[in-house]
Amino acid sequence: MHILNKLTQEALFRKIGLTYEQMQKMDAEEIDAFIEKRIGSKLKYGFSLKNIINRGSVYLFSKRLRSLSEVDKQLAKI
Amino acid sequence: MKREEDIQHLYRAYNTVIKPLIAEVEARTEQFPLPLFNEIRALHDHISRCYCDGVTEEQIEKNIEKGERHVVRIILDCYKYLNLSLHDSLMLFERQTRNIDLTVLKNGTFYPEYKSLRTKAVQMVRKAKTLESLNSKAALDTFQESYNVYTQLENLIDEVTPDVHWARVRFTARKWLSVILWILSAVASGIVSILLGGLF
Q1: What HEC string does B75-143 produce?
Q2: 3-class secondary structure per residue, B142-189
Q3: Is the pLDDT of residue A32 over 80?
Q4: Is residue B91 a part of any domain in this protein?
Q5: Residues near A5 by Cβ (< 8 Å), separated by ≥ 6?
Q6: Residues B8, B75 within the same domain
Q7: What residue of B is the nearest CA neighbor of A4?
Q8: Do B39 and B77 meet the contact criterion of CB atoms below 8 Å apart?
Q9: CA angle B191, B193, B196 (to 5 degrees)
Q10: pLDDT in tens, B179-192
């Protein structure tokens, strides 16, 4: 199994602000909330990762995913 | 029992490698990386199919194998994105310091160190890309090494950021000085030619 070496763990701590051990104990939502607090804004949905081609979903590839706030707006019109 | 161990292995890879790397992608880009989450859905799908009613041992084995391939793809994508993001920040630094003499930073030690680390990082990314289709484990290790070199470069840039300002001031002062000297020499040569013209 691939493992993250010491240098990577230190780099993660510098950028995220959480230790490697802390991240393993926290759930994904807690980590996201921590990052949002640190950067001072909400995380946005990123459809494409720069030059990396999306795999396995035509919705991702064509950027056709709808956010829940949009769905709520449409529902309110019904 | 073997099946349980294999599935545990997949979850361990998620918790110890994928989750921290995705957090890093989020911290750097301020975005939820949907393509990576889509891969996680695929991984989870293969794991859940191991628990379907009437599933055979052969099907379980196939699903675990496919799940392992998704784990490798997710980690590869995380590294690719992180390397790309760090490379972009280097390009930005180079654009911003295009008119600055970087050789004066850190008593002249910054630029040679920066150049050698940059070359090393780029070479490693190229090597990892060629390894990707041949040996995924070696590709992952090489991508991690290039990521480590890029983060070293990032630290190096952070260290010299206050000095970059002074280097910029020095560069501008030197530029203005050369302009003033050029004007003075033009004026002086004009005066000399007028004086010589008056004499002859």
Answers
A1: HHHHHHHHHHHHHHHHHHHHHHCCCCCHHHHHHHCHHHHHHHHHHHHHHHHHHHHHHCCCCHHHHHHHH
A2: HHHHHHHHHHHHHHHHHHHHHHHHHHHHHHHHHHHHHHHHHHHHHHHH
A3: yes
A4: no
A5: B144, B148
A6: yes
A7: B17
A8: yes
A9: 110
A10: 999 999 999 999 99
Q: How far apart are CA B26 and CA B18, in angstroms?
A: 12
| Full domain range(s) for residue B154 | 97-200
pLDDT surpasses 70 at A52: no
- Domain shared by B68 and B104, yes or no: no
Report field, pTM of the whole predicted structure over 0.90 = no
**Chain B residue with the nearest C-alpha to that of A8:** B148
pLDDT in tens, B102-145: 888 888 899 999 999 999 999 999 999 999 989 999 999 999 99
Which residues does chain B have within 8 Å of residue A32's beta carbon, measured at their own beta carbons? Answer: 26, 32
Same domain, B116 and B192: yes
8 Å CB contact between A50 and B84: yes
Please report the ipTM that was assigned to this predicted complex.
Answer: 0.78
Which residues touch B6 (CB under 8 Å, ≥6 apart)?
B64
CB–CB contact B30 A44 (8 Å): yes
The backbone region for B186, taken as left when phi is positive above 0, alpha when psi lies in -120 to 50, beta otherwise, is: alpha
